[in-house]
Amino acid sequence: MILLDRRGKKGLVMGRHLELLQGTLDMLILKAVSLGPLHGYGILLRIQQISRQRLEIQQGSLYPALYRLQHQGWIASDWGESENKRKAKFYRLTAAGKRQLQKEAENWDSMADVIGGILRTLPEEL
């Protein structure tokens, strides 16, 4: 499992720390809310679910990111009632957020392709 902290870094549970590319947390949040409106804790659970329990976002990282994404106009929020009948802020993707998610996904795919190509390079290919 990989834990993401508030500085945008991840660390394996075994204690080894690796740096996340800047903006990855934002992209994960945008993807989670693109699947349907969610309250904050629901976003954490959704990311865990769609990563098949391999990613776990820390709450201290999530809420500043939600504020930032809302300030940028990529998500919007409305007050509602959670499953346990408590008042909660539910976040949803805006049209601008949908465009941003698409852009970030394309950038991610391009970068993964470039890095994958580099890692597959053999000495005889140089």
Features:
Arc Repressor Mutant, subunit A; three-stranded antiparallel beta sheet; 4 helices
Fold and architecture overview:
Residues 11-19 have low confidence and may be disordered. The chain has a domain at 22-45 and 59-116: Orthogonal Bundle (Arc Repressor Mutant, subunit A). With 126 residues, the protein is α+β, with helices and mostly antiparallel strands. The N and C termini lie far apart (36 Å). The protein is built from 4 helices and 7 strands. It is 48% helix and 23% strand. The strands form 2 sheets. It has a 4-stranded mixed beta sheet with strand order 3-2-1-5. Helix 1 (24-34) packs across helix 3 (59-71) and helix 1 (24-34) crosses helix 4.
Quick structural overview:
The protein has helices spanning 24-34, 40-50, 59-71, 95-120, and strands at residues 2-4, 9-12, 17-19, 38-39, 55-57, 75-81, 87-93.
- Within the largest sheet, what's the order of strands? 3-2-1-5
Which architecture name of the domain at 22-45 and 59-116 does CATH use? Orthogonal Bundle
Gap from first CA to last CA: 36 Å
Biggest sheet character: 4 strands, mixed
CATH class of the domain at 22-45 and 59-116: Mainly Alpha
Stated plainly, the CATH topology of the domain at 22-45 and 59-116 is called Arc Repressor Mutant, subunit A
Helix content: 40-55%
Strand content: 15-25%
Low-confidence stretches: 11-19
The beta-strand count equals 7
- N-to-C series of helices and strands: EEEHEHEHEEH
CATH homologous superfamily name of the domain at 22-45 and 59-116?
Answer: Winged helix-like DNA-binding domain superfamily/Winged helix DNA-binding domain
What's the overall geometry?
elongated
Mean pLDDT: 86
Tally of DSSP helical segments: 4
